[in-house]
Amino acid sequence: MLKLPIYMDNHATTPLDPRVLEVMLPYLREDFGNASSRNHVFGWKAEAAVKKARQQVAELIGATDQEIVFTSGATESDNLAIKGVVEYYKSKGDHIITLKTEHKAILDTCKRLERVRQERLDELKLLRLGQLAERDVSPEEVAELAAKHDVENDATYKKWAEMPTGGARVTYLDVEQDGRVNLEKLEEAMTPKTVLVSIMFANNEIGVVQPIAEIGALCRKKGVLFHCDAVQGIGKVPFDVEAMKVDLASITSHKMYGPKGIGALYVRRKPRVRIAPLIDGGGHERGMRSGTLNVAAIVGFGHAAQLAREELADEAARILRLREKLRKGLTDALDMTVLNGSLEHRLPGNLNISFAHAEGESLMMGIKDVAVSSGSACTSASLEPSYVLRALGVDEELAHSSIRFGLGRFTTEEEVDFVVNLVVDKVRKLRDMSPLYEMAKEGIDLKSIEWTAH
Amino acid sequence: MAYSDKVIDHYENPRNVGTMDKEDPNVGTGLVGAPACGDVMRLQLKISDDGLIEDARFKTFGCGSAIASSSLVTEWVKGKTVDQAMTISNKDVARELSLPPVKIHCSVLAEDAIKAAIEDFKKKRAARKAQAS
C-alpha cells in the first residue's frame, strides 16, 4: 500500500534508520555517562561507545579514528575547517579558492573572512593616512586623503597590508555548464599565498560529483590544503581520504540516516594538518572542539556510517535504477524538460529537472503529497532563483521551473511510479494555464518580448 | 509556506482560464511580469462598445498566489464597467486572498494586468476611431 505523504527530499535530510535508533536508545537511558569521566564505569562505557563510533566513521572514509573530530554538524565542520586553517596558517598566506556552487556554510564563512580582512585594511589605511597627514583622520576623510597621498602605492601601507589580517582573500571559481570544476582554472587561480582549496564532494541541489581525486592530487602537488565538504556524497558514492588526498572533510550524520545535530570534521594526521579551534573549553576532541560529547548521537552516527559502508554498493545500484525510472518517466511523457547538471557525474539519488513554463513553487503546490524542493525564487524570501543553477548558466525562467527530487534508502518503486504520474499530470495542468507554454508552442521566441520587470 | 484556503481554492479550481482572440477589436490583452522573475500574467477582457466587461480570461505562469490573484480578478471584473475595474487595487486582492508580505507582488501584478488589458482595449478603440474618421 502506498502511504502519503511521500518523502523525496533526501538531500535536505534523511529519515533515521530504525536500526540506528535501536543502538542509540541505551545511551539515552541507562548509559548516560559523560565520555570524559575517567573514574567510573558510566564514563568508561560512554568512552568505549564513542571510540567505536569514531572507528566506524573513520572506516567509512578510509581514515583512522584519531583523525575524526566530532562536531554539531556539517555547518560547524565547514566553519571549523576554513576558519581553523586560515587562523593556523595565517603566517603562510591568506588566500582561499572555492566554487560559486558551494553550500552557504562555505560561502558565507568565506564572505565573513573577506569582511574581516577588509575591516582590518580599512583600519590600517586610516592609521597610515594619520601618519601621512600628521593629524587625526576621521573615516569620512579616508577617500579624499587616500587619493591625495596615493596610499595604495605607499610602501609602508603596502607592507602593512601584506601582514596577517585574521581574514582572507577568496576566489570563487565558476563551474562548467555541467556543474563541474575546471581543473586548469583551479590551478591558474592558485597563488603563493593560497593556503586552502575548499570544494564540495557532491552538490546539494544538482547532485553533481566533483573530481575529488584530481583536485586532491593537484593540491598536494602545489602544497595547498584541500578541504572537501563531503556531506552529500558520503555513504552514497565511495569516498576515500587516502586515495583522494583530502586533508579535511566535513561529514554529517543526518544525510546518511543518522540523527541530526552530530557531524564530524576529518583532519589529516599524515602529513599533519593543523587547525585552530572555534570553541575553547575542556580540550575535548584533542583540543579542536571542546564540549561534552553527545554520546547517543555519536553512537547513532557511527552505526549509520557502518550501515552506509556495508550497504553502499547495493543501495547505490537500487537507487540509481529508481532515479533513472523517475527521469525517463518524466522526460518521456513531457516535452521541454531540461536536466540541470551532469548526468554522468551525479549522485544516484539526485534528479534536478526544469519543466519549462511551469513554475516550480506552483508545481510543488500541486504535488503537495510529495515532498521535494524547488530552485524557484518563490520558495525563499529572497525572490532570487537558485544561485547554484544560475552559476551553471541556467536561464532564470528555467531556474524558476526547477524541481529537485532526492531519492533515498526508503524510496520505493511504487512511490516513483506514483510521483511520475502525479508530476506529469500537474505539469500538464500548469502548462495549460501558462501563457509562456502557449507562446512557446506557437513558436514565439520568449526572448524577443520586452517584459515588464517588477 | 502555508497558503490560505482561498488561494488553494483558486489554485485547484482556477476560474476563467483560457485564451481570447487578441485580434478581436473588443478584446483587451494585458501581459505583465517577466519569466526571469518567475511570474507572467496574461489577462484578457472582452469589453462591449459601451465599456462593460462582458468576459475575462487569464493564463498565468507563476506561484500559487499569482495564479490565485489572476483567477480572482477575472471573477471581479466581469460585469463591471471599465472605470469600475480600474479602481480594483492590489490591496483588495491581497486582503481577499490573505497574501503574506512576500506574495504582495502577485497582487500588484494582478492590478497591473487589469490596467494593461484596459489600456490595450482603449488603444485599439482609439486606433479604430482614427481609421474611421
What does this structure look like?
The complex is a heterodimer of chains A (454) and B (133). Chain A has 454 residues and is an alpha/beta fold. Chain A folds into 2 domains: 22-307, 3-Layer(aba) Sandwich (Aspartate Aminotransferase, domain 2), CATH 3.40.640; 334-430, Aspartate Aminotransferase, domain 1 (Alpha-Beta Complex). Chain A has helices spanning 18-28, 41-60, 74-88, 104-133, 142-149, 155-161, 183-189, 212-222, 295-333, 360-366, 387-391, 396-400, 413-432, 435-441, and strands spanning 6-7, 68-71, 95-99, 169-173, 194-198, 225-229, 248-252, 263-267, 337-339, 350-355, 370-371, 373-374, 402-406. In chain A, helix 8 (212-222) links the parallel strand 5 and strand 6. The model of chain A has no long low-confidence stretch (mean pLDDT 96). Chain B is of the alpha+beta class and 133 residues long. Chain B has one domain (5-122): Sufe protein. Chain: A. Chain B has helices at residues 5-12, 64-77, 82-86, 90-97, 104-132; strands spanning 27-34, 39-47, 53-61. The radius of gyration of chain B is 15 Å and the shape is elongated. The chains are: A alpha/beta (454), B alpha+beta (133). At the A-B interface, helix 10, helix 12 and helix 14 of A face strand 1, strand 2, strand 3, helix 2 and helix 5 of B.
CATH class of chain B: Alpha Beta
The CATH topology of the largest domain in chain A turns out to be: Aspartate Aminotransferase, domain 2
Strand content of chain B: 15-25%
Label the CATH architecture of chain B. Answer: Alpha-Beta Complex
Greatest interface: A-B, 30 and 33 residues
Work out the radius of gyration of chain A. Answer: 25 Å
| Unreliably modeled segments of chain A | none
Percentage of residues in strands of chain A:
5-15%
Chain oligomer state = heterodimer
Content-based structural category of chain B: alpha+beta
CATH superfamily of the largest domain in chain A: Type I PLP-dependent aspartate aminotransferase-like (Major domain)
Function (chain B): A scaffold on which IscS assembles Fe-S clusters. It is likely that Fe-S cluster coordination is flexible as the role of this complex is to build and then hand off Fe-S clusters.
Pfam families (chain B): NifU_N
GO cellular component, one term (chain B): cytoplasm
Domain NIF system FeS cluster assembly NifU N-terminal (chain B): 2-126
